């Protein structure tokens, strides 16, 4: 690749992409295998390399001021300079109106985001108590920081009933049911060539992207030590910081 003698920004961007590309190649060859083996350990080594790059980027941003960080984002994507959040829809207005139309109007793409997000979190954590603790604590976090982010302003019935009980609760229940079903699944390592039907072949391809096995996890039990309890509390706190 030849350097552009007139456009230094293109040269910097090309250099960054090249450095990222070779870092991911090194991660593919040198990083250790993780707990996931499907569809292939090499895929997860590349994903781990992307996670390391993301962590390094966050560490770099920690030493920059707000203006510098925003200028970097504007340079990466100039459209962000004129981007603004559409706040025409107010979730915390007219909370005394409990009509069906008012409640139905609050069910939008964010409701599905709550449901799907907590279903995936349940698959990751697999403990109902911790999941409910994180769910309730996150709603408290939204109330605490509502003065900073207008999207956090919600009616009490929206936060407690729609979010925590219905969307989050159903997501947690579905995720735990998925875990229970997958733990009882019987794997048949037949070659795809031996499957005669098209539906069976497609099902076999989809199963290739699922974990090789599932292990039942007990985060807390009556014999847990104080250090174990402290570690679980630390997990909950870090999860809240990541969500924020």
Strand content: under 5%
Helix count, DSSP H or I runs of 4 or more residues: 9
Q: Give the topology string: H per helix, E per strand.
A: HHHHHHHHH
Number of strands: 0
Question: Low-confidence spans: pLDDT under 50, at least 5 residues?
Answer: none
Mean pLDDT: 79
SS content category: mainly alpha
Could you say how many structural domains there are in total?
Answer: 2
Shape: globular
Query: Separation of termini?
Result: 41 Å
Radius of gyration: 23 Å
How much helix, percentage-wise, in residues? 55-70%
Largest sheet: none
General description of the model:
It is a single chain. The protein has 244 residues and is mainly α. The longest helix has 28 residues, at 156-183. Helix 1 crosses helix 2 (41-61), helix 6 packs antiparallel against helix 7 and helix 6 crosses helix 9 (226-243). 62% of the residues lie in helices and 0% in strands. It starts with 7 loop residues before the first helix and ends with a helix. Pathway: Lipid metabolism; Phospholipid metabolism; phosphatidylserine biosynthesis. Keywords: Endoplasmic reticulum, Lipid biosynthesis, Lipid metabolism, Membrane, Phospholipid biosynthesis, Phospholipid metabolism, Transferase, Transmembrane, Transmembrane helix. The chain crosses the membrane at residues 12-31, 43-63, 130-150, 156-176. It catalyses: a 1,2-diacyl-sn-glycero-3-phosphoethanolamine + L-serine = a 1,2-diacyl-sn-glycero-3-phospho-L-serine + ethanolamine.
């Amino acid at each position: 690749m030849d350097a552009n003698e007139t456009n230094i920004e293109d040269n910097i961007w090309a250099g960054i992409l090249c450095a990222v590309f070779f870092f991911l190649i090194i991660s593919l060859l040198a990083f250790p295998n993780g707990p996931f083996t499907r569809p292939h350990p090499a895929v997860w080594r590349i994903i781990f390399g992307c996670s390391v790059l993301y962590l390094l980027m966050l560490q770099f941003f920690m030493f920059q001021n707000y203006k510098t960080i925003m200028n970097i984002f504007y340079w990466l994507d100039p459209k962000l300079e004129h981007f603004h959040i559409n706040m025409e829809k107010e979730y915390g207005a007219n909370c005394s109106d409990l009509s069906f139309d008012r409640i139905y109007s609050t069910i939008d793409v964010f409701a599905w985001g709550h449901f799907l997000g907590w279903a995936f979190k349940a698959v990751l954590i697999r403990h109902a108590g911790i999941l409910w603790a994180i769910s309730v604590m996150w709603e408290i976090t939204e109330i605490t920081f509502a003065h900073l982010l207008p999207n956090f302003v919600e009616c009490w019935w929206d936060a407690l009933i729609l979010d925590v009980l219905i969307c989050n609760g159903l997501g947690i229940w579905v995720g735990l049911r998925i875990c229970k079903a997958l733990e009882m699944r019987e794997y048949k390592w037949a070659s795809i060539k031996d499957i005669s039907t098209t539906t069976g072949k497609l099902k076999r391809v989809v199963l290739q992207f699922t974990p090789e096995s599932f292990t039942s996890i007990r985060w807390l039990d009556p014999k847990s030590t104080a250090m174990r309890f402290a570690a679980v509390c630390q997990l909950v706190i870090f999860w809240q910081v990541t969500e924020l």
